[in-house]
Amino acid sequence: MDEPPYELVGVELIRVLVPMKGRWSSHAGELSERDSLLARAVISCRGEPGGASEAEGWGECAALPEPTYNGEYTAGAIAVCQAHLVPALFRARPGQLSEVQGALAPVKGNNMAKACLELAILDAGLRALGRPIAQYFAGLTERGDQSRSSVPAGVSVGLAGSVGQLLDEVEYWVEAGYRRVKLKIGPWHDVKGVAAVRRRWPELVLCADANGSYSGIPFGQAVDLLSALDVLGLAYLEQPLADDDLLGHAELARRLETPICLDEPLTSLRAVETALDAGACDVVNVKGGRLGGYIEAVRVHDLCAKRGVPVWCGGMVETGIARAANVALASLPNFSLAGDLSATGRFFEKDLTGPLPLRRDGTIAVPDGPGLGVPVDTGAVSAFSTWRLWCPANK
Known about the structure:
The protein is of the alpha/beta class and 395 residues long. The protein has helices at 74-92, 100-104, 111-129, 133-140, 163-176, 191-200, 219-227, 246-255, 269-277, 294-307, 320-329, 378-384; strands at residues 6-26, 29-45, 53-60, 150-152, 154-157, 180-184, 205-209, 237-238, 260-262, 283-286, 311-313, 363-365, 385-392.
């Protein structure tokens, strides 16, 4: 894909605290407000008629406030961006959008922080070009795929205090039009609630996410508990064991009828290849943040398409900035399962972007404007910001 050269003018790091509608609970912790890192990249596009022009773009770091999902967390992402990743960008001076990942590669790990910066620069560059990010992702695929104009919406339901509360929440989302519901589960918080939801909605696309919580009990006991899910017709069971237990997941995949999906350990294209070769998963959760960027996520999409492995797009309770990027990513053809792609208003009374509404057919339209395709509400960003730092490229 043709990309005119650009020059990075600077990056602003912004910490925001966005109030949530209600408390969100999983084995990774509880949230009542989203403490997140945003990045605003400003670029100068060379080769424009009449000289260079500037454009800005936005990225969002998926890391949670505490290191409970993986080793990254909001304050750590801020520190590594300020001390290492932003200086690495300024040293490397990537002149093409596709070169950002390589510029950040000398810094090990910190994938979510890297993805935040990559997304900000992608958004800026594509806004300058007048090109939607979904179209850009499609052009990166090996086959030059066409992106879809809409994607099926799915909702993730956190741990509930009772089966009755769980049924009430699922009913709310089903009546709202969501096509897929994912239930958070744990060793003592699993079959009863999932079975009740299945009895109430026998045709609903249903799945379960354990966030590695079954690693804390003996393997045989985990098999016994999880095998009870096999009669419930789940689309998949996500991440039942620890991040580094590929052999355990492979053995579990042999013993259960429910397809196994992996999330946390899939941090790169190579990690996905290893997991598939080991037989550790039948389904892949693709998260741009966890993979270190959306360009790597497109590569994972292509690998899984070649192997006939279905993928879906995971979420991290993000604002509309990352949500717009996730919807665009999910428009690629091998995203055959509905992902964690809920509409604007799922988590926040006041989001940071223009709306991504749920349509009457249970889908979300893929933004077709330049870059992320949704306007960023800079007033909301300012209102919710707790810290900001402008980092100029030439100082």
